[in-house]
Amino acid sequence: DNFNIYTSGMTSDSSTVDAEDLLSVSAASSASPGSYTIQINNIATAQKLSSSSFSSYSDGLGSGYAGEIIINGRAISIYETDGLDDIRNRINNANSGSNPTGVTASIISYGKNDYRLILTSSSTGVDGISLQNGSSSDLVELFGWKDSSDTLKNSITGGAQSDTFSSTTQSIQALLGLSTGQSG
């Protein structure tokens, strides 16, 4: 029986990335001989979301922006006197301790009077950024992270993501609430 044991091995055609950094393989005692080629076209990236443009990073945003947003299950309070820098600091403070959000915030200037609050997930792949309103104010939409239908995020990497789909096995037709014969 020992003469029929097979092992697994990997190689990479990249001089900068080892195959072991991309995936793992193993062979069971019932393995058959074979050779397989796996091509990795894209490596998962962390989700990033950009807010709408603001003319200042430090001026208070006003009473329309007072309320709470929930980032990955943690409530972040926002006050009318807060500027983008205050909100950034509060988001970054929530990403610590025993229950971190897994999201960091930064401010990027795209030009004169064009400042944006950027949220970046610490996780790559499907674990991204979950945003919800924690108060009656629709702060998520005000910041420009979702549109009025509450489905699309203004993503600057990785494409748009939806929070309304909760099933990986249900058909797209059913998730969108379409009946047979409807098309868009």
Structure commentary:
The model is unreliable at 148-165 (pLDDT under 50). The relative contact order is 0.16. The protein has 184 residues and is an alpha+beta fold. The longest helix is centred in the middle third of the chain and has 11 residues, at 84-94. It has three helices and seven strands, in the order E-E-E-H-E-E-E-H-E-H. The strands form two sheets. Strands 4-5-1-7 form a four-stranded antiparallel beta sheet. Strands 3-2-6 form a three-stranded antiparallel beta sheet, covered by helices on one side. It is elongated and about 70 Å long.
Summarize the structure.
The chain has helices spanning 84-94, 139-142, 172-175; strands at 46-50, 67-71, 74-78, 103-111, 114-124, 131-133, 155-157. It has 184 residues and is α+β, with helices and mostly antiparallel strands.
Q: What does the main sheet amount to?
A: 4 strands, antiparallel
Distance between the termini: 60 Å
Mean pLDDT: 78
Structural class: alpha+beta
**Inertia-based shape:** elongated
Strand order of the largest sheet: 4-5-1-7
Strand content: 15-25%
DSSP E strands, number:
7
Q: Please give the oligomerization state of what you see.
A: single chain
The helix/strand order is EEEHEEEHEH
* Helix fraction bin: 10-25%
Computed over alpha carbons, the radius of gyration is 23 Å
- Tally of separate helices: 3
**Could you list the spans in which at least 5 consecutive residues all have pLDDT below 50?**
148-165
